[in-house]
Amino acid sequence: MQIDREREPSGRVRAEQVEPFPIPDRLPVFPLPNVVFFPKTYLPLHIFEPRYRQMVADVTIGGQCIAMALLKEGWETGYYGNPPIYPIVCVGRLVSVQPLADGRSNILLQGLERCDICEEHYDKPYREATIRIKAQTADAGLEPDVRRRLVEALAQYLQTREDSTAWQGFFREEVSDEVLVNTLSTYLECTPLEKQFLLEADGLHQRARRLNDLIQFMLHDHHGAKGWE
User: Fold this and answer.
1) 115: DSSP letter
2) Which of 15, 48, 94, 181 is exposed most, by the fewest CB atoms within 10 A?
3) Are 89 and 198 contained in the same domain?
4) Is there a domain that residue 139 lies in?
């Protein structure tokens, strides 16, 4: 059994610690071709395939955790089997289940931790994996200049979008570095492979720098397409 510890907005572990949520060493895996999940974010999903209906039923009465994985290229030919996945995934805690007709359901996952897939198991209708939580870096926060450059790049990027007002909350100082970086990684219009590249970053600083680079690339691409100077 492994542990996800609830952290303060600053990224530090609270002194008055609530009971940490236990993450099982063996988890169901939900692989998708276009979804990359990040810690400290939320992911709504619609469950309709029979094997994943069974997965949700088992998780509801079991460990409450699912590992979200990105399928590798070429998954189409073997989707109903167990096509290859990227080995770094994010564990999500099942926080709500809304049953629907015919066994379908809407669920909501809360991102807990990144983890490595150590071994895959195929003895159930859905894939499972033995996982190892990736160690947290000693300093989980961003250096002030790294955060400043990221926020400046985001502000410039939002000038190209019609929904810029919906993003204004990210500029608040009380938004923690981890929530800022991981939420931006989730909602920016990056490709799934680019998001996987962000997820695999070695620590929050590297993810923030990679995210900044992606935003700069998107700005350059947008300006080039529009013929801006």
Assistant:
1) E
2) 15
3) no
4) no
